[in-house]
Design goal:
Largest sheet: 6 strands, mixed
Structural class: alpha/beta
Main location: nucleus
Helix content: 10-25%
Radius of gyration: 28 Å
Organism: Periconia macrospinosa
Bound molecules: S-adenosylmethionine
Keywords: Chromosome, Metal-binding, Methyltransferase, S-adenosyl-L-methionine, Transferase, Zinc
Distance between the termini: 49 Å
Number of helices: 9
GO molecular function: histone methyltransferase activity; zinc ion binding
Number of strands: 23
Pfam families: Pre-SET, SET
Length: about 500
């Protein structure tokens, strides 16, 4: 870790070991340069941490903190414009407003950030600290030193930083370079995501989606989450890659993967079969021998495009059981689709109008076409509750419960798992809700013996022209299904659909 040499009133200096940036406190302009006031963590002088001004280039390793600061600055900007338009406070009154760490760094600061010093741990009578007004540099030994001693250091109490003066200056100063650097970093990360390109467009403001997010190709299983072991993933043993049309599985009654798939009751026309079916259903016997359907149109099927969902699944909430690596049907089986990932080009965009970021497609999408899965950390119900309770209620929610089989398998709520897509996931984390959606979420399982870990896959439920926002119904309601009365935490729905239910969740 580097040492920082802080000059004290331009005469002497003290050397402290800097462990990390704790937070960014303020910003200002020096000529054309944007500077940001950094508070450092240092265990050998925790009550008197160094704070120093830095250019955007010097902050490239803590862009997430810079982004947090810009969000706080934006809030201050809104607050200050509301104050000046509503009550025209006197300047002296504003000057004396105390800027304490408690009031100045509100809930926007992520609760899980390990490096943030909490207000309660701040010393009761804080020691004055030195703010060096110049720039810091690295010397030939790797120590961070002052580049210039032109400006004397000022002494100030940390709990009063930023001072009202600093706040006023910061609101007038440009932050364009910081915004651009954050945007560049996000774009660089997007460029590394495998598959079709993900674009980012913002025609409303300079903000970028949170850098506290990592794109991942599949779930991350967290503590306490147990996925059924690989040897329970049976796979179909009676199928082969070449059963006539070279499309892998061809016969639903042979394909072991469909054992638990929904029976296509409309296809039971034989009276004897009907009796046998009703009996098997009543006794809870295997329904493997009854007619089912594969979920996707196959290559060579006349109707519509290969790979899109057949209406039997599209218009129902039935789980989809795809073939897996243990199957004998080969890699090109018609019953494998979602497991290969996204194949459409998408765009993350700033929606405006209070819904934050959204996702839209860059190409025409057909009814029944697979878009992408919802990914994230799979956590226990208890952990999800803990995260929910520690989060700011007005913040976006990215929790998705894996409760599809709760009722049929008798799984208690507390034993269910939840996907948290806030910090890890895919572009689907940006799909907003609509009461008249163009996508729908489906359960996709690769292991029929695991009712607790499965994929959530989004498919288009109608043709979607390029450029249209992708949406799904967060409550997954059937048409006309009533919703509960809105509770105190209900969030107003801004989807603007003619049939809008007015509340996002109740
Ligand atoms: C999974 S996130 C969707 C992406 C989010 N807009 C963002 O900027 O990250 C869910 C959150 O988006 C917002 N949201 C989504 N659909 C909305 C709607 N129809 N009306 C109001 N807010 C919506 C809510 O804040 C919700 O908690």
């Amino acid at each position: 870790m580097p040492n920082v040499v802080i000059p004290i009133r331009g005469q002497t200096s003290r050397r402290v070991k800097v462990e990390d940036v704790v937070r960014i406190l303020s910003n200002r302009s020096k000529g054309t340069e944007e500077q940001y006031l950094v508070q450092w963590a240092c265990s050998n002088a925790p009550e008197k941490p160094p704070i120093s001004w830095h250019s955007v280039n010097e902050l490239s390793r803590c862009l997430e903190l810079l982004q947090d600061y810009l969000a706080i600055r934006e809030d201050r900007k809104v607050a200050s414009s509301q104050t000046s338009s509503s009550q025209k406070r006197k300047a002296s009154e504003l000057d004396s407003t105390p800027f304490t760490l408690t009031s100045e760094l509100p809930s926007r600061t992520p609760s899980r950030s390990p490096s943030v010093t909490s207000a309660s741990s701040a010393p009761a009578a804080p020691a004055p600290i030195d703010v060096y007004n110049g720039m810091l540099d690295v010397d030939q030994y790797g120590f961070i030193v002052c580049r210039s001693s032109k400006y004397p250091a000022a002494q100030i109490e940390l709990r009063r930083v930023p001072t009202p003066d600093m706040v006023r200056t910061s609101l007038r100063s440009k932050v364009d370079k910081a915004c651009l650097r954050i945007r560049e970093e996000y774009l660089a990360r997007l460029a590394k995501v495998p598959g079709k390109k993900i674009h980012l467009v913002n025609t409303h403001d300079m903000s970028t989606p949170s850098l506290r997010f990592r794109y991942i190709p599949q779930y991350i299983l967290r503590e306490g989450v147990i996925q059924a072991p690989p040897d329970t993933q049976e796979g179909c043993q009676k199928c082969s890659p070449h059963m006539g049309r070279n499309i892998g599985c061809e016969y639903t009654q042979r394909c072991g993967c469909l054992e638990y798939a929904a029976v296509n009751e409309a296809a039971i026309t034989d009276p004897d079969m009907e009796v046998a079916y009703q009996k098997a259903k009543a006794n809870g016997d295997s329904l493997a021998a009854f007619p089912k359907r594969f979920p996707y149109y196959a290559e060579g099927t006349k109707v519509r495009r290969a790979g899109t969902l057949v209406p039997f699944y599209l218009n129902s909430r039935r789980p989809i059981y795809e073939c897996n690596d243990n199957c004998r049907c080969g890699p090109d089986c018609r019953n494998k689709n979602v497991q290969f990932g996204r194949t459409v080009e998408v765009e993350i965009f700033r929606t405006g109008g209070g819904r934050g970021w959204g996702l839209r497609c860059r190409e025409n999408i057909y009814e029944g076409q697979f878009i992408d899965t919802y990914r994230g950390e799979v956590i226990t119900d208890a952990e999800a509750t803990r995260r929910e309770e520690s989060a700011d209620k007005s913040k976006s929610s990215y929790l998705y419960s894996l409760d599809k089989f709760a009722e049929s398998e008798g799984i208690d709520v507390e034993d269910l798992y939840v996907v948290d897509g806030e910090f890890y996931g895919g572009p689907t984390k940006f799909i907003n809700h609509s009461c008249d959606p163009n996508c729908r979420q489906y359960t996709v399982s690769y292991n029929k013996h695991d009712p607790r870990v499965y994929d959530i896959a989004f498919f288009a439920c109608r043709d979607i022209p390029a450029g249209e926002e992708l949406t799904f119904d967060y409550l997954d309601k059937e048409e006309g299904e009533p919703i509960e009365d809105p509770g105190p935490d209900a969030i107003p729905c801004l989807c603007r659909a003619a049939n809008c239910r007015k509340w996002l969740w109740t």
